[in-house]
Amino acid sequence: MIDDGKQQLAFVALKTTGDPVVEASVNEYIRGNTTPLCPSAGAYTYGNIGVNPACSIATPTSHVFAGAN
Questions:
Q1: Most C-beta atoms within 10 A of its C-beta, which of 10, 21, 37, 56?
Q2: What is the pLDDT of residue 62?
Q3: What is the pTM of this model?
Q4: What is the pLDDT of residue 68?
Q5: Residue 62 near residue 45, CB atoms below 8 Å
Q6: Structural domain count of the chain
Q7: Distance in angstroms (rounded) separating the CA atoms of residues 25 and 64
């Protein structure tokens, strides 16, 4: 969701790879206008345009979405 929001912001605001983003500006393109919650209680870092968002939880297997079987 964060990456999609960054891509939409980049398109609308004419940003290019490496440009910094303001989280609130990205959140305008995310449902609920807020930073998504990490299911493992981590914190997301948005990163610049062209850089993947990251989570403070380093182990990807610790991310379990609610409702997953």
A1: 21
A2: 56
A3: 0.80
A4: 43
A5: no
A6: 1
A7: 27
Alpha-carbon torsion, ordered 2, 27, 22, 44, to 10 deg = -40
Which residue range(s) make up the domain with 26?
Answer: 2-59
> What pLDDT sits at residue 64?
55
In a domain, 68, yes or no: no
User: 41 in a domain, yes or no?
Assistant: yes
Mean pLDDT by 10 residues, the chain (69 residues): 96 97 96 91 94 84 51
DSSP string, the chain: -HHHHHHHHHHHHT--TT----HHHHHTTSTTSSPPPPTTS--EE--STTS--EES---GGG---TT--
Give the HSE-up count for residue 26: Cα atoms under 13 Å, Cβ half-sphere: 22
Residue 44 within any structural domain of the chain = yes
Residue 64 covered by a domain: no
